[in-house]
Specification:
- The chain is built from nine helices and eight strands.
- It is of the alpha/beta class.
- It has a single domain, classed as Alanine racemase (TIM Barrel, Alpha-Beta Barrel).
- It is globular, with a radius of gyration of 17 Å.
- The chain starts with a helix and ends with a helix.
- The model has no long low-confidence stretch (mean pLDDT 97).
- The protein binds pyridoxal-5'-phosphate (PLP).
- The site of pyridoxal-5'-phosphate (PLP) has 14 residues, from strand 8 and helix 9.
Length: 226
């Protein structure tokens, strides 16, 4: 992809984020994580040269090859895909900045045990299935607060920083909005009781709406790389 095209895409996304966040509050800061799964390392390097520092992947294997080949760049890496239990050790080895898709208590306990063994900690977000969709992973809305508390109390190697959610898969803006509002309401409670400070919601097709609903981290792939 041409550098000029990537610059244009990135500028547009940054501009839209800016509009959305200022409409909420000038003090509302939003982080952009560029999701590279549709793209390649060359394009990630170009984005780096344009100032982007945070990148995300949804597969451990891809995360591994990219963190290794782009090792010389001061990037932060976010993992945001379903983690199979046989990939836990690999993920720990890669020391991601943030593991955004911790999606069950069982996975948390398994991850905690391996982290303990390696004397490491990992910053994570609890993924919630805010639109109650079969096709998506994540804990249910009803259980989210209890599971968050349980992980905080029983998994000392896991540093929970907040929530991640994928907006409802729908053409209906109201439904998408509702899924974001539901996530934000839970986040707001966790912010007060557990100092959670990351509410990760919003992708290429819905990030402005997500920000208006309180998101402070958006994960954008296709609008940047396609
Ligand atoms: C792929 C992916 C994204 C980015 O998706 P786009 O719609 O291309 O912006 C964000 N979050 C997760 C969890 C993803 O897997």
């Amino acid at each position: 992809m041409l550098k000029e095209q990537l610059r244009k895409n990135l500028d547009k996304v940054i501009w839209n984020i800016e509009q959305a966040r200022v409409s909420l509050s000038e003090h509302h800061i939003v982080k952009l994580v560029a999701v590279g799964k549709y793209s390649d390392e060359e394009n990630i390097k170009i984005l780096y040269s344009l100032g982007q520092r945070a990148f995300g992947e949804n597969q451990v294997q891809q995360l591994e090859s990219r963190t290794k080949s782009l090792e010389e760049l001061p990037l932060e890496w976010h993992m945001m895909g379903t983690l199979q239990s046989n990939k836990i050790n690999k993920l720990i080895e890669l020391r991601p900045t943030l593991f955004q898709s911790l999606d069950s208590l069982k996975l948390a306990q398994a991850l905690n045990q391996r982290l303990e063994h390696k004397n490491q900690t990992m910053s994570c977000l609890l993924q919630i299935n805010s639109a109650k969709e079969e096709s998506k992973s994540g804990v249910s809305i009803e259980e989210a607060e209890d599971i968050y508390a349980e992980i905080t109390e029983s998994c000392p190697q896991i540093k929970l920083k907040g929530l991640m959610s994928i907006g409802a898969h729908s053409e209906n803006k109201k439904e998408i909005q509702k899924s974001f509002e539901t996530t934000y309401n839970i986040y707001d409670k966790l912010n007060k009781s557990y100092k959670a400070n990351i509410c990760s919601m919003g992708m290429s097709n819905d990030y402005e709406l997500a920000i208006q609903c309180g998101s402070n981290l958006v994960r954008i792939g296709s609008k940047i790389f396609k």
